Amino acid sequence: MAAVALPQSRRSGIDPFYVMEVMRAAEEREVAGGEVLHLEVGQPSTPAPAGVIRAARNALENDVLGYTTAAGLEPLRRRIAEHYRSWYGAEVDPERVIVTFGASGAFVLAFLAAFDAGDRVVVPTPGYPCYRNALQALNAEVVTLPTSAETRFQPSPSLLEDLCRRTGSVDGLVLASPSNPSGTMLDRPALAAVADWCAAHGVRLVSDEIYHGITFGDPAPTALSLNDDALVVNSFSKYFSMTGWRLGWLIAPPDLVEPVRRLAQNFFISAPTLSQIAAVAAFDCHDELQANVARYAVNRSVLLDGLPAAGIDRLAPSDGAFYVYAAVDHLAADSQDLCRRWLDELGVAVTPGIDFDPAEGHRYARFSYAAATDDMAEAMRRLQQWGG
Ligand SMILES: Cc1ncc(COP(=O)(O)O)c(C=O)c1O
């Protein structure tokens, strides 16, 4: 009997997140007894702060850990609102805070609430690949905005204006500052200019602020204070060093609070309860977290000195996050091949740029400096001695 073709959605063809594949290759090498210096991982090498772990132990022993309301526990939403007051001087009603399954869960809610199938949403490249892939899976039209070293790998009103002139009007913009992979940041006037451009053109801004707290000059400004209609996404994954706790948040503009809550009820019921209870303590752990940032700052200097000494000297200014995005096209035509060789020959794992920029990424590689300082120094030594 002929096999009946069962339905499969077009979105099942979603692109992989290639960095995961680099991580798998590095893991295979380790399982086979090889050593790996991890400059590919986009996550802190430290555990959650001690206060969070204590609170989680206590909750495990004393709490039922059932579902919470879809928006999240009230004490956590209140602490998040307070965080905006103390860090940014911004007032936010805790009712507008929705606690989510990481920033990743916040994007799903933000995109579903803000955009319909066919809406045109601008995604700058190089950028975090999951925006593009998630939007495509939701049948939005992704409008790529190429950025370059000349624009510090960030969008600007003139780039957006030019894009609209060439391709037509748009409905949304997703940006990240500091950005993954470039680490570049929009300062307050630059972010205000983009936020104002969005307001003037009826474009819904989604601001990914997941790397706030990990900056090496001025602190990063929040879009919350600059555009009343923006959706602001953040997470406990990076500054708070809690990737596996899968907890983030979304600040919804007033008109989208109820839609986001209803979407959250239907898609997720609630974010992980143990993580929510424990995360309240994260806001009392800034000393420990600042020590992590101080280590990233040292690691950053190791790379900013070490990469040029290895002949890799076209580097994006790494204002924040824990990444250096570097042009490597003088070493290989395709950075995927280069990264494979570095892993095989040097035991140094680095992420090729293709994840972040399908068009130009083959010319770039992303070096993460979230791991131990000694590992960074040793990786630089090996790259400097590498014959190519
Ligand atoms: C820019 C950016 N946004 C979002 C995420 C995902 O965050 P979460 O772990 O909170 O889902 C990442 C993870 O690397 C990221 O780099």
Question: Which properties best describe this structure?
Answer:
single chain, 388 residues, alpha/beta, Aspartate Aminotransferase, domain 2, 2 domains, 7-stranded mixed beta sheet, 4-stranded mixed beta sheet, 12 helices, 11 strands, 14% strand, globular, binds pyridoxal-5'-phosphate
Task: Produce the secondary structure layout.
Blueprint: H1 18-31, E1 37-39, H2 50-62, H3 74-88, E2 97-100, H4 102-114, E3 120-125, H5 129-137, E4 141-146, H6 157-167, E5 172-176, H7 188-200, E6 204-208, E7 231-235, E8 248-251, H8 257-267, H9 273-279, H10 286-309, E9 323-327, H11 335-346, E10 348-352, E11 364-368, H12 373-385
Parallel strand pairs: 1-10, 3-4, 3-5, 5-6, 6-7
Antiparallel strand pairs: 2-8, 7-8, 9-11, 10-11
Helix pairs in contact: 2-9, 4-5, 4-8, 10-12
The structure holds pyridoxal-5'-phosphate.
Pyridoxal-5'-phosphate (PLP) is lined by residues 42, 102-104, 128, 176, 180, 208, 210, 235, 237, 243, 248.
